[in-house]
Amino acid sequence: MLLEGNNKKDLLVSPSEGDDRTIPAAITDTGCERELNEDRYAVIESSSGVAWIVCDGMGGTTGGELAAQLAIDAIRRDLDKRQGKSAEEALKGAIVEANRVIVLRRQNQSFASMGTTIVAAMFDGPEVVLASIGDSRAYLVRSGAIQQLSIDHTYVQQLVDRGELKAEEALSHPQAHILTRCVGAEPGIEVEVNRYWIWPSTADEPTDFLMLCSDGLYSLASENEIATLISTFSPQAACVKLVELCKARGGYDNITVAIVPLAGQVRKTPPPHFIKKPFVDEEIEGSVQTEQRRGGIFKHILFLAVLCTVAIAATAGAFLIVKFL
To answer: How many CB atoms lie within 10 A of CB 304?
Structure first.
């Protein structure tokens, strides 16, 4: 269950008065030690839904910044082309396309080590599709409680999964940031994709927030601190305060965070009476329409041919009759 039992409005904190908590926000900061900001974020509207995306580029001055931007641009182009696709198919396909673009660019020796992580959420009505690859994260926050929705594709996460390392020891491990998957590393990638649904909440229930971030945030801010700030302040104020908190602790990495307020509570099953809107694959639909037109033209030609044959036969018959008589 997602944040089971955390439905009290005053579980830990009370929201600040005067804050507009319904407006989403995002921020990216270079941090205190880096010269370049290799993080990127974007909000992209398409026929499949609205996508929020956070990328954390790798490769330093030889491509990290470029890799993150290439990924954003490739995703935007691909979503524009995938008209009529489902949110899940469109988002996953766009990330695969971003991987193709970066893999091609890595053939240039100057960019041979570049790549990027991606965490993204696409909203299509009550449906939320979450996709990730790498160690950028997605969190669900409800009234002071927090739950990580994404899975880290890292070496230390594999150790945790095998029971060789405690979860609370993962971030302090010397190999904490060694990735097992990222965009651009190889031609074929496996994108982690999960689907959720937003259920309407009653007046007595708190609503959820979805947060996307790079590792520069959660490496320096604890989950409790993240949950408290998001539950207390508006998304705009919470973004700023989270970045300030990380920079006060050294800010040794780029920091990016996006906070999206949701009109209800996230669950793993569709809400009652949910009907998935039909979508049309325009390529298939176009082919069907073309075949239908061709079929109509063929039928019309066949009909005219039959008429001509009948007319010729009738004329010939009349001639024979006249001649016989």
So the answer is: 10
DSSP 209: E
What distances in angstroms separate CA 148 from CA 123, 142, 216, 240, one per listed residue? Answer: 18, 12, 16, 21
CA-based torsion, 32, 35, 41, 42: positive or negative: positive
Beta-carbon contacts of 267 under 8 Å, excluding residues fewer than 6 positions away, are 2, 196, 197, 198, 199
Q: Which residues 6+ apart lie within 8 Å of 309 measured at CB?
A: none
Number of H helices and E strands in the chain, helices first, is 7, 11
What pTM, to 2 d.p., does this model score? 0.82
Per-residue burial over 36-55, b = 16 or more CB atoms within 10 Å of its CB, e = otherwise: ebbbbbbebebbbbebbbbb
What is the DSSP code (8-state) at residue 167? Answer: G
Judge contact between 184 and 108, C-beta under 8 A. no
Distance CA 60, CA 41 (A): 18
Mean pLDDT by runs of 10 across the 325 residues of the chain is 59 56 96 95 97 94 90 97 92 98 93 95 97 98 97 93 88 88 94 96 92 97 98 97 98 97 96 70 47 46 41 36 28
Distance, CA of 111 to chain centre: 25
CA 19, distance to chain mean position in Å, is 27
Tokens found for residue 15: 């929201």
Own/partner pairs for 138-141, CB < 8 Å, 24+ apart?
138/210, 138/211, 138/212, 139/210, 139/211, 139/213, 139/223, 139/226, 140/2, 140/3, 140/208, 140/209, 140/210, 140/211, 140/266, 141/208, 141/209, 141/210, 141/211, 141/226, 141/227, 141/230, 141/231
Residue 260's SS3 state is: strand
